[in-house]
Amino acid sequence: MSQLSPPIAPSLVPQRTLASGAKIPAIGLGTFGSDHVSGAQIAATVLDAARIGYRHFDCAAVYGNESLIGEALQSVLKTVAPREELWVTSKLWNDKHAAKDVIPACNQSLRDLQLDYLDLYLVHWPFPNFHAPGCRTDSRSPDARPYIHAEFMETWGEMEKLLEQGLVRHIGTSNMTIPKLELLLEDARLRPHCNEMELHPHFQQPEFLTYLMGKKIQPIGFSPLGSPGRPERDRTPLDTSPLEDPIVRAIADEHRVHPAAICLKWAVQRGEIVIPFSVNPRNYAANLRAVAEDPLTHEEMEKITTADRRCRLIKGQVFLWKPDQLWEDLWDENGAITPA
Length: 340
Ligand SMILES: NC(=O)c1ccc[n+]([C@@H]2O[C@H](COP(=O)([O-])OP(=O)(O)OC[C@H]3O[C@@H](n4cnc5c(N)ncnc54)[C@H](OP(=O)(O)O)[C@@H]3O)[C@@H](O)[C@H]2O)c1
Known about the structure:
Blueprint: E1 15-17, E2 23-25, E3 29-30, H1 39-52, E4 56-58, H2 66-79, E5 87-92, H3 99-113, E6 120-123, H4 149-165, E7 171-174, H5 178-187, E8 194-198, H6 206-214, E9 218-222, H7 246-255, H8 259-269, E10 273-274, H9 281-292, H10 298-305
Parallel strand pairs: 3-4, 4-5, 5-6, 6-7, 7-8, 8-9, 9-10
Antiparallel strand pairs: 1-2
The structure holds NADP nicotinamide-adenine-dinucleotide phosphate (NAP).
NADP nicotinamide-adenine-dinucleotide phosphate is lined by residues 30-32, 34, 58, 124, 174-175, 196, 222-230, 258, 260, 275-280, 283, 286-287, 314.
């Protein structure tokens, strides 16, 4: 176990209760290596993170490391905690949206992760647009398509089957918008339990959060620290960093912690689940501790609310379907689904 990090009892970590009644830890370990951290390093982190008290792991087929994480999870099961105390999420990648591909893709993740069920399975993006790992942001798949609701419902129908067959315990969406979710909620037999989305002090999405809470869909915030390690290709000159924010930094100074801890406390206290990535033992231990102790005051929470810059960092340019489109088209910013 990391010598730097005394364990934190999982009972001290806040939990969220989903519409199903299931409890999920309000912090999980992210496992996307942003093209520069190896799968082996991430798998070693999964085992050590479990030893210091993490019980929730956010995985995805496209991260390319599920088989290594599966070996780490086997060690976790043998030496740290039984299956029922773990929460493992995986995600359906964009090139597996066809109805015939969904259940096999989930089975592949189960084999790789060496599990017989997933706690949560998400549709990673609402577009079936494949892109090669590490490709440039101006790269487009030749058969890229817009959001087509009838097609998404075929994918969703298979997600419902996975739930009914017991291969997954919960299903959900990721990178959705309110207009797309409205359609899904109209037509779904089984509703999403969670929606994973970018959330941090510089991208707070308050309307979307209120919407999800009202529908009893649990928000899971990705890149909760503003993804400081994201690949160069995902950076633009207008991007800002919540870790550099003067309000966040002033509150961090008062609490004598890194600004990362303030971002995580704020997110969990506003009702989110956070999934920060780290392979640095000092950092992932501090992140777990941050949400387990020393909460922010009401005034501090309010101050951070004023720090919002509406700055989306994970823009998704590679999923655009026409030349000369703006990344904003992916996010239905005028309140309606962007037409084909
Ligand atoms: N659904 C989706 O489409 C989607 C999209 C993006 C991400 N995600 C998920 O969300 C996870 C997290 O997002 P992310 O990786 O983009 O960004 P993030 O968690 O906001 O940032 C991770 C970066 O912050 C650093 N860090 C972590 N803890 C720190 C601390 N206490 N102090 C200082 N630096 C710290 C890490 O470096 P060190 O390793 O050096 O600590 C790493 O470079 C991903 O791993 C993935 O599981 C999902």
